[in-house]
Structures are given as C-alpha cells and as structure tokens.
Specification:
Layout lengths: L17 E6 L5 E6 L3 E6 L5 E6 L5 E6 L3 E6 L3 E6 L5 E6 L5 E7 L2 E6 L3 E6 L4 E7 L5 E7 L18 E6 L4 E5 L5 E5 L6 E7 L4 E6 L4 E5 L5 E5 L6 E6 L18 E5 L24 E2 L2 E2 L66
Antiparallel strand pairs: 1-2, 2-3, 3-4, 5-6, 6-7, 7-8, 9-10, 10-11, 11-12, 13-14, 14-15, 15-16, 17-18, 18-19, 19-20, 21-22, 23-24
Length: about 350
Amino acid sequence: MGGGGSALRVCAEHRGGINWLSLSPDGQRLLTGSEDGTARLWRTADGQCCTLLQGHESYVTFCQLENEAAFTCSADCTIRKWDVLTGQCLQVFRGHTSIVNRILVTNNQLFSSSYDRTARAWNVDKEQVSREFRGHHNCVMTLAYSAPCDLPRAPFEEEAVAGGLLVTGSTDGTAKVWQVASGCCHQTLRGHTGAVLCLVLDTPNHTAFTGSTDTTIRAWDILSGKQLRVFREHQGSVICLECSPAAGTPARAPSTPNPERCRGCSGATPSSSTVSRCTARCYTPPRTTACCASGTCAGFPAPRRRAPLPPSAASPAFSATKWAAPPPRPCSRPESAPTQPRPHSGTHGGSAPAPWWPEGTR
C-alpha cells in the first residue's frame, strides 16, 4: 500500500459493476469481468487497459486468465476463449441453457457450472461438451477439481479416479463428487441445511471444505464422502473460502484435517478464531438466477435480458446496461431438495443486498 493506505492504481474504464478479477500467473496482467458485458485486460505496472474483450451478449459472471489466453463466462449461457494480445474471441462454447456461473481451466480441461442445474467438462480444441454432470436439484454454484496425480492409486480406486474428481456445490444444499472419466456421481456430501456457495480443496489430504448459507463450514473426505468436521462460529452466510498449506507442515491423512488451513468469511462480523479468519477476497454472491428446464428456479428472481452491446460500448459516453426482467414462470421444486435461500432485494449491479439466509435460520 502507498502512504496513508492510498490506492496505487485506479482502473476505471468499465461502465458497470465488476463481478470478478483474475491475476495472470506472472502477476503482470489483471483480467476483469463486468456487468457492462465486457472483460478488460490491464497492465498491473501502470493500471492501463491494454485489451478490450467484447462479444458477450449479457453480463460477465466470471473470468480466468492464463499466460496466453483468457476465459470468460456470462449470463448469455456461453463461455468464451480470448487472445490476450489482440482481444480476438478464439472460441465460443455453447451448450448450457442458463447462466454460466463459474468456470475452471486446468490441465487443458475446461469445467463449468450453471444455473441449469448441471456442470460440464469441455473439449477445448473442439468446443464441445465431453461430459455432463447431472444430478443436482438446483443451481450449481461453485466447483473444484482434483487431478489424478493428486489421488490415491489403490487398485480398487484407479478406474474411479483415472480422469480426476470434480467437486460441485449447489443451492440444493449438497456438494457432489464426480468421476470425470465416467461422469458418474462418486459421492454426495450431505449435511448443510442451506445453499453451498463456495468450496475449496485440500488436494494432498483429499479433503473438501464447503461454505453455506447455513453459517457453517464443513470438511469432507471426497473419497469416502464422510463429513470430518463442522465449523460453527460465523453468524452469517459463508461466501468465500481459501485453503493454503502451512509452511513446513507435512500432509495429513484425510481423517485428521488441519482446521487452520481453512479460512472462511461472511457478511457478518468475523470471528476472532483462527479457524474462521476473514480474508479480503470475499465476493457478493450472484443476485439473480435464470430459468431452469421448466421455468424459474424456486426461491430466486428471474434473470435479466438485454440486447447485444453496441460497438460504442467501449466509449466514455457509454452508460451501464439496463436489464429487463421477464415475468417469472414458476417451476416445481423436487421434494428431496431443501428449502432455498431467500432472494436478494435490488437489481444486479446495485448496492450490496442483505446476506442470503435459508428459511428458519434467522
């Protein structure tokens, strides 16, 4: 920080709220995804915008920056790959039928989660879905991946983990562990009583940590599905988690996870406990969702729609896009799905709303 806590750089060319940030592996560039339907690439040295990524037909929900390419996903149901030097869109991945919430690029694989209740794995070269993970009863919010090299090689497990394991969290209150090679659900992690908004993996210990609107963080063995521990000190929804190994600490067995590795933060006043130290990497959960297969997902407002951005969207005179909400169409919620969080007030891009609360917890 500069003297007196002043900002070192100000990047102010977006015309709408910024939904996500991604720093390049070398720390030289910053990618931002915005409500204005664009992503921008900035030089961290001087704060100058060096590339405008324009092509999405709705707001950008998430972005990931690699050394030679950028990836974005949007409420227009697509994922795009971009050339970071020219800003040219190289590929468009189509297949999701609702807002794409998160993407994950790792080992030349692309994974995505969506409000259409599915997660998907994509063949990056062919722009095609290689695997669909279907089984959640509501929106899939977050995801994480454990590569085969990080998993045990016991003979009875080799086939199951050959393609690695994908972990997803949903507003149906569960997390699921999927076999990437087969697309089968390996384990369903049940215990939360509210939406699972965030998760992170401790890969050496084969442990997943999940954060929820039920105010708890839970640790799970992703191989057996066993719940290992529950952290209960927060007074509000847990919306962000970060897991980092302690320096010089050897990896532990899954049955004895290190609670100090998991740090959660919520909209409420953070606890002084080392288990729940609040980090500065919080984000506001999405405030809208989209239609599921038979209408609008229960417990959430309808998505917004807008016309494609005009070529002048990058000009200083361009104003933030106004989103129109179509009339919601109710859809039936499966009886096995738990009560959903209450919807936010306000519109996407406005002031931060109250935290999500599951019914019966306030």
